[in-house]
UniProtKB/TrEMBL annotation:
Residue stretches making up the HTTM-like domain: 1-270
Stretches that traverse the bilayer: 57-78, 141-163, 214-237
Residue runs in coiled coils: none
Protein name per UniProt: HTTM-like domain-containing protein
InterPro entries per UniProt: HTTM-like (IPR011020), Sporulation_signal_mat (IPR052964)
Lineage: Bacteria, Pseudomonadati, Bacteroidota, Cytophagia, Cytophagales
Domain of life: Bacteria
GO cellular component: endomembrane system
UniProt-annotated location(s): Endomembrane system
Keywords attached to this entry: Membrane, Transmembrane, Transmembrane helix
Membrane topology according to the record: Multi-pass membrane protein
Keyword Transmembrane found: yes
Organism: Adhaeribacter swui
Length: 481
């Protein structure tokens, strides 16, 4: 759990750094989702977000710095319980500000922090542990939250398999062929295996049955350490394969971090014997440099409660966690087609309030067949047609060598995916005007554009490597006054 805490702190910092590069675009009123548009089209009344208090990018930058500070404290294990609560709330708030760029990894990261609020993941490898007088510190822990964490990991994989309710996943085995036909997410590793249909078929079937059956190994009571190592090893390799073949942002990294919490005692004994000594000097230096840092949020509470009242509070906490765990299981099972009984609208408020809502539909129920690439066709004041997506080069409908390279990061890729859906048509004019404004602000008057067309070159994936003729679709047109 301590290793997972360090990993989560690191991922939070990386995620904030990536998001901060698009501070104005995704989180301010000058970007693609102003607050009034968010509240009109996307918002749920039970969502909470302090990031919606202002549309100024400067306020957003301040909130990003606050979140980064607490994420760093989490990594170090300083005031871990308090910091975990703050990190969870800041992440929840940030994700609620723009749900159009979210993906499954965001849901998992949010849930890891939620369960960790009730777990002692600051007990080891932390500044808190160095200040603790308890010795020896317990190395095992069992509670409703620890059960919730393990069940959460199981739900991620079992539910994504159940949601893949299509013959291409468990019968014909063509799902991975279809996934690697999507140039928007195709990485070099995917290009290497794409020409081999038999290999893709067996990899597809292997993916489906691994996701469905592997998590149940965690429940085997005998030789539990061995089976946990099997689960961790297989999932680590599984997500390594995903990271080499598909453009999925931080999804694979978040999943790697999540399985650290499943490592059995034998693995941690090896870690402490072989690797931990290399970090001791670094830890000593860190403690020396931070010894005189002002205690910015040194909060101390003195509770004068009898043992009976402590037990009562503990029972209330366990009861709350058990209730949320039951709700999470209910939410997940209500999504799968085998049950086909959506959670009632009247019961959804808790999921949205705590953001324990989740849907693990990665390439489910089947892989998208609509692929393509964007052309941002700008008409200059000199009546030249240039492509803003290709740094102002002349417009061409020839397919780029790398469609992935057109996206700044996975947040923009996800945004562009949502941009295509008819029910998200409200997004289109705001994106169009944003790109037009950004271009004109950063270029000389001679290179200004007076009209911008957002064009999508649609390619529908066909079976058996059949050639595809792209179809030009104009999604939006905007211009200067």
């Amino acid at each position: 759990m301590a290793l997972m805490r360090i990993g989560v702190g690191f991922v939070l910092l990386v995620d904030l750094a990536i998001r901060a590069s698009d501070l104005e675009a995704f989180y301010s009123n000058m970007g693609v989702l102003p607050l009034h548009v968010l509240f009109k089209y996307v918002w749920d009344p039970y969502l909470i977000s302090i990031h919606t208090l202002s549309g100024l990018w400067q306020i957003q930058a301040l909130l990003f710095l606050i979140a980064a500070f607490f994420a760093f404290c989490l990594l170090l294990g300083y005031r871990t319980r308090l910091v975990t609560i703050v990190c969870w709330f800041m992440l929840l708030s940030l994700q609620n500000r723009n749900t159009l760029i979210g993906q499954g990894g965001d849901d998992l990261l949010r849930m890891l922090l939620f369960w960790a609020i009730f777990l002692p993941w600051g007990r080891h490898y932390s500044l808190d542990a160095k200040k603790s007088t308890a010795y020896p510190k317990p190395v095992s822990h069992f509670s409703a939250a620890s059960a919730g964490f393990v069940i959460q990991i199981m739900l991620v994989y079992i539910c994504t398999a159940l949601l893949k309710d299509s013959p291409e996943w468990h019968t014909t085995g063509t799902a991975l062929y279809n996934a690697l036909s999507l140039d928007q997410v195709l990485f070099p590793g995917g290009k290497l295996i794409y020409p081999y249909p038999v290999l893709l078929k067996y990899l597809t079937l292997g993916t489906y049955y691994t996701e469905f059956y592997l998590p149940f190994l965690l429940l085997i009571p005998v030789f539990n350490s061995f089976f946990r190592l099997v689960v961790v090893g297989v999932l680590a390799g599984f997500h390594l394969g995903i990271s080499l073949t598909l453009f999925v942002g931080l999804f694979y990294l978040i999943n790697w971090v999540s399985i650290l919490g499943l490592l059995p005692p034998v693995a941690m004994d090896w870690f402490e014997a072989k690797l931990l000594p290399y970090f001791e000097n670094l830890g000593y230096r860190l403690r020396r440099y931070t010894a005189n840092v002002p205690k910015l949020f040194e909060l101390r509470f003195t509770w004068h409660l009898s043992p009976a009242r402590w037990e009562a509070l503990s029972a209330i906490k366990e009861g709350f966690v058990i209730a949320v765990l039951g709700y999470v299981i209910w939410w997940n099972l209500s999504n799968v087609p085998q049950i086909n009984h959506p959670i009632p609208v009247a019961a959804r408020w808790l999921g949205m309030l705590l953001r324990v809502d989740q849907h693990w539909g990665m390439f489910a129920p089947q892989v998208f067949k609509d692929d393509g690439w964007y052309i941002l066709e700008g008409l200059t004041t000199k009546n030249k047609r240039i492509d803003l997506n290709r740094q102002g080069q002349p417009v061409t409908e020839k397919k780029p060598k790398s469609v992935v390279a057109l996206f700044k990061n996975d947040r923009w890729r996800k945004y562009s995916e949502n941009y295509l859906f008819v029910n998200n048509a409200f997004m289109r004019p705001y994106f169009c005007n944003y790109r037009l404004r950004i271009w004109n602000e950063s270029h000389a008057p001679a290179d200004q554009i007076k009209e911008l067309q957002v064009v999508y070159m649609l390619e529908r994936t066909l079976p058996n490597y059949q050639p595809i003729i792209p179809q030009r679709q104009v999604l939006c047109v905007c211009g200067t006054p």
